[in-house]
Amino acid sequence: GTGGAKTGGNYAASLLPQSEAYERGCQQVLFLDASGNLEELGGMNVVLVRKDGTLITPESESILEGITRESVLRLATDRGLRVERRGIPVAEWRDGAASGDIVGAFACGTAAVIVPIGRLLGEDIEIVHSGPDSETLARSLREELTGIQYGRLGDRYGWMTRLDG
Length: 165
What we know:
Structural class: alpha+beta
């Protein structure tokens, strides 16, 4: 992709894999870098949740910056949660989910806001997140962010601008 520029070329490479994902019963594709580190989903950012509440999200120059991801990470930080931005090998996600250290994952982006990831399926990997802990934080952050967006909660960040017309 083109990283920092939002162009059609960023999404064109995902069309065939996305079609194959649908055929396997999946809703999104996950892209890795050449080293096997997480990058992003076909149209959204990805965040892993550790059992201690730490959020881990990929840091890469090839990921398009996302205001939704930045907003979610800000809300999490203000709740006192730790946020790590770094390379994340897919094996770390697999092993962390198996050991119980990683209890959930979610996708975030403009259209979906925040969506829990229940399962990652690949040629030689399957990661399943289930149970109440797998979605609790994602749903709570979604409620807070959409509450601010729709005016149900106060906007202590100055993110909203009222347009009178």
